[in-house]
Amino acid sequence: DKYYNETDIIKERGLNQLTRELLLAQSSDWAFLMTTNTAKEYSAKRIRDHVYCFNKLLKELLSDSIDIMFLESLEHKNSIFNELDFRVYASRSLL
After folding, report:
1. Nearest to residue 11, comparing CAs of 52, 76, 58, 54?
2. Whole-number Å distance between alpha carbons of 93 and 71
3. What is the mean pLDDT of residues 32-56?
4. CA–CA dist 30, 43 (Å, integer)
5. 95 has pLDDT over 50
């Protein structure tokens, strides 16, 4: 319930980007490229980068101090799923 009804636009953007980073880190493309040795190092780096960004944003969100420049850089760099709303993946009882 803590974030489900969030109205602070910066926090909403942070939560949406958290969701994007998680989806990108979990992409099956990376695992496929690693197991076929097509782009093993690149794929591993992409996973690490997305997990790092997820963790950094989560820490900032929980401490109520989102680095807007970092958030904007991620929104620009990882701009897939622009219409994503974190609430689609959320349970009111868990947030």
Report:
1. 58
2. 27
3. 89
4. 5
5. no
Could you tell me if 34 and 40 are in contact, meaning their C-beta atoms sit under 8 angstroms apart? yes
Which pTM value belongs to this model? 0.84
* CB-neighbour burial class of residue 69 (10 A; exposed 0-12, middle 13-18, buried 19+): exposed
Token output for 77: 């760099």
Determine the residue type at 85: D
Domains and CATH numbers, the chain: 9-89 (1.20.1430.10)
Angle between helices 40-62 and 28-35 (to 10 degrees): 150
Give dist(CA 66, CA 33) in Å, integer.
33
- Regarding predicted confidence, which is higher, 27 or 16? 16
Distance CA 6, CA 87 (A): 10
Token representation of residue 63: 């401490």
Residue with tokens 């994503």: 84
Distance CA 3, CA 61 (A): 10
